[in-house]
Amino acid sequence: MLCIDLLDAISKWQGWTAVAALVAAIYTALTYRLLRKNNKIAEFQTYMKIAEALNSDAARDIIDACIDNKLNVDSNFPSGTYCITGGHFRRNVLDPLEDLSKFCEDGLISINSVDSGFGYLILEVGNCESVISHLKQVRKKSPDAYRGFENLYQKIIKRCTPSLRRNYRKDFK
Questions:
Q1: How many C-beta atoms lie closer than 10 Å to residue 153's C-beta?
Q2: Where are the alpha helices (DSSP H) in the chain?
Q3: Which residues contact 98 (CB under 8 A, 6 or more apart)?
Q4: Per-domain residue ranges of the chain
Q5: What is the helix (H) or strand (E) element at residue 161, kind and residue range?
Q6: Each residue of 124-133: pLDDT tens digit?
Q7: What is the phi/psi pair of residue 73, to 5°?
């Protein structure tokens, strides 16, 4: 009977809500601090931002055309190819990949995360002849355009096994 009365008194004490809120706040702060210390929150947010951009319908259509080697950027637009303007291509694929390279360079996302999440996509886009041709055109006006993407391609290709590496170009020349 005494135990029941004690439990009843404890459960009616209104301070428990404040104590629970304080414990939750401390737990959240410590967890956030640990994650922030490891840079995992920033990496996750960066990863999700790029993944969202590269998984849009427009980007997926372009990337699929790269993989099938049917992409045509700012050319004669022959039949049987996926034809897009350079601006559309840059906005939907090259710009997010360039952002990804910058985030990797700045340490906001690891090369392991980039490789596991986007490695195949980077290799396929970088291996597409139409992409290389477009980059050469863009670089006539701006010689350093999309160098980050090219550098990221180089990092990913170096991580591949020699047998896989043979399936892709060594550089963008």
A1: 24
A2: 2-12, 15-37, 40-54, 57-67, 86-89, 95-105, 111-127, 129-141, 147-159, 162-165
A3: 146, 148, 149
A4: 1-38, 39-165
A5: none
A6: 999 998 899 9
A7: -110, 120
CA dihedral of 117, 55, 120, 43, whole degrees rounded to 10:
-20
Question: pLDDT digit string (tens) for 97-125?
Answer: 999 999 899 888 889 999 999 999 999 99
User: Is 72:82 a contact under the CB 8 Å cutoff?
Assistant: yes
User: Rounded to whole angstroms, how far apart are CA atoms 73 and 50?
Assistant: 22
pTM score, two decimals? 0.71
CA atoms within 13 A on the CB side of 83: 8
Hey, what are 86's tokens? 């350079």
Q: Are 118 and 54 in contact (CB under 8 A)?
A: yes
